[in-house]
Structure formats: structure tokens, C-alpha cells
Write a structure and sequence with these properties.
Radius of gyration: 22 Å
CATH superfamily of the largest domain: Type I PLP-dependent aspartate aminotransferase-like (Major domain)
Cofactor: pyridoxal 5'-phosphate
Number of strands: 15
Domain Aminotransferase class I/classII large: 30-408
Bound molecules: pyridoxal-5'-phosphate
Low-confidence stretches: none
GO molecular function: cysteine-S-conjugate beta-lyase activity; glutamine-phenylpyruvate transaminase activity; kynurenine-oxoglutarate transaminase activity; protein homodimerization activity; pyridoxal phosphate binding
Mean pLDDT: 96
Helix content: 40-55%
CATH topology of the largest domain: Aspartate Aminotransferase, domain 2
Distance between the termini: 63 Å
Shape: globular
Strand content: 5-15%
Number of helices: 15
Structural class: alpha/beta
CATH architecture of the largest domain: 3-Layer(aba) Sandwich
Number of domains: 2
Strand order of the largest sheet: 2-10-9-8-7-3-4
Keywords: Aminotransferase, Cytoplasm, Lyase, Pyridoxal phosphate, Transferase
Subcellular location: Cytoplasm, Cytosol
Amino acid sequence: MSKRLPARRLDGLEYNPWVEFIDLSKEYETVNLGQGFPNFPPPDFAVEAFQQAVSGDFMLNQYTMAFGYPPLTKILASFFGKLLGQELDPLENVLVTVGAYGALFTAFQALVDEGDEVIIIEPFFDCYEPMTLMAGGRPVFVSLKPSPTQDGELDSSSNWRLDPTELASKFTSRTKALVLNTPNNPLGKVFSKAELELVARLCQQHDVLCIADEVYQWLVYDGLQHISIASLPGMWARTLTIGSAGKTFSATGWKVGWVLGPDHIMRHLRTVHQNSIFHCPTQSQVAVAKSFEREQLHMGQPSSYFVQLPKAMQRNRDHMTHSLQSVGLKPVLSQGSYFLIADISDFKSKMPDLPGAAEEPYDRRFVKWMIKNKGLVAIPVSIFYSVPHQKDFDHYIRFCFVKDEATLQAMDKKLQKWKAELGP
Ligand SMILES: Cc1ncc(COP(=O)(O)O)c(C=O)c1O
């Protein structure tokens, strides 16, 4: 074709760093602790609900309502209404989307205009930047800064904080939205009430929207509480709260997500939705509706999946945190999510010249080396940073611990072999 083929909005977005690492991991005999999905089944009640949706009422093979299967929007409204301290209307305040990815995309397309600035807190779930750019916006980055630890003491994601003055300096008259991800991927940070209050104050002061990505809200550890920023005074009116059934019920392939928010914002998301996706698969929505109905009955009890899953994942986190240290990786204690990051600075000092292009951030070279030589797959943390900040954070790698016992044991075996190679 002689005409320019790709739309200009795709400029600079073709390269996806994930593909390289996923492809490389397939070439070697590896234990995959890279991508964030469970390799164990969803809970029985959720699987049974899906099976019933497929084999029961044949009309569930057909379209449902554009903005969500009615029993699902109803249960999401009542379930999250209580948590957010709002009376939610299933039609006005809830939109069901193709996963949380779909929710984010719909939000960016609906709200971010040509030249609008969007504040993104680093390290960030990598799609926020391209989604801002595709909408014509300008990402403005601000990093969480780790505070120094005592010698020998493990770092914690709670030590990674925003500098209030720096954060305030990022707000301008062009700022349209701030993206907040708590619990955070990849760091596992759970924002404290005081931190959320700081963000909330600035959003209100500068009349800025908050896109709150809370897909890991049930995955918080050590007795911590997840707080939705939309529940803070004055924030409901300017916040979109995004969730994912994939993360909630360990069923990432179902691709059911949702957005909750005030009608004056949601109506614009509905416009995008009805002119793009129109509606999401009915049967997976049925299964998610039934699963939430079940969870509502078991809320807070030991039988609740939202109680059981974090307990099991905290055990996995502890197992992985302990095992990684055996070879000199230094895990940063994760407070939430599926992930933890580990500090590889000692390797950077001991073997600085790993193969790879000189300008390639160290963590990427290290992960390639680890896949090839140690059979372990992780994700370099620099890909969760904007290009100018990548060099400052190229000494961390991300591990995913939402894995079954056999995978954790296979990881241990690889680490034991690595340790033996290190010698006494
Ligand atoms: C922070 C964050 N937001 C959103 C998503 C996307 O969720 P979904 O699979 O429901 O599209 C992910 C998936 O990894 C994530 O980590």
C-alpha cells in the first residue's frame, strides 16, 4: 500500500518487551515465574457456575444487556456499594468490560483528550502509558522512591513512597487524570490511608480524575487492609474504580472486568463501550455473578474465597521470599498482589558485563542470563518504568507467586542447583 498504513496513534508503540522474554523462556527448560496468572484452578463454586451457564438455559448463549448481564451489575452494585460507602445503581454506576484491560481502555478513550496530561506512578502496570498515548494524552511520570534499609535488613514495598512535593509538582492546568494502582503491580505496595489522602487532596485541589486500578484488592497480606480511594471524602465524584474477575476468582481467561463510578463520568465510558465492544460474553458474566453472590453469603468467614486466597498466597509469598535469598537475590517484601520484586544489585556489581547491548538496562540482560543459565523466568522491572527512569531502576526483577505447590518446588530445585554452583 502506498498510503501510510498504521494510524499515527500507534507511533512508537509497536515494541512490546514482554514478547521477547516470553519467547525466550519457551526455548529453555524453565520454571515460569514471569507472567501473572495462576496455574491452579479457580474455586469449585466458580467452575460449577460456569459449567451451569454453558449447559443450562440456552438463551445464555445469546447477547445480554450491553453494559452488563443484569444479575452481574446488580451484585457488583450491592457488593461494592457497601465497600465504597455508596448506594450504587446497577445501570448508572456499573459497567462490565472485557477484563480490567477493557475497563482501562474504555476509561482512557472516554476521558483523555488530545494534549491532556495523565500522572502515572512508577513502577506501573505497563499498559497505562500506551493507553494514554493512544488517546492522544501525555503521560507524566512520578516514581515511588525506596528509602534505604539497614545492612542485612530486607526491604519492604511499604518503604517505597511518593515524595509529596514532587508529586504536587506534577499537577498542572493540563492534568486530566492520575492513575493509582493499589495493590501495585509489580511492587506489591499497598497504599496507606495517609498516602491515599495525599493523592486525594491533590486530585481535588487540581480538579483531576482518579483512575483507580484495584484488581488485586483481595490479595493483601499481613493483616493489612485495602482502601479504595473512591471511599475517601470527596473522591467518589471523581474516581473510577476498576476490578477484574480474573484476579478475583483466579480465572484470568474469563476476561470479565468492571468499572464503578458516578453516572456523570460513566455515561462517557458507556458511549465508548457501545461503539466498540458493545457487550461482553454472557456465560462468563453469569459465572462471575453467581460467584459474587456466593461470596456475599460467605463474606468475612473462613469459607470465603476472599479469605482463603490471600492466606494461601501469603504462604507462597513467604516461601518465595525465603527461597530467593539462598542465591543472593534480595526480595522486597510484597504487601499485596501476585508479585514481588527482588534486588539484583549484588549481581550487577559482581557480573556487570552480561551479554547484551550496552544501552540495554541491566535487569533485562540479567533475566535473559537467568533464563538461559538457571532455568528461571522473571520479568525485568525496568519495563514498568518510563524510558528516562529505566536506568535508575534496572537492578530489580519481578517474580510471580500465584503458582501451585509443584511450581514452587520446581523453583526450589533450580535455586538449590544455582546455590550449589555458587560453591561454599
Ligand atoms: C494492575 C493490573 N491491572 C489490570 C490488569 C488486567 O486485568 P484483566 O486480566 O482483568 O484484563 C492486570 C493484569 O495483569 C494488572 O496487573
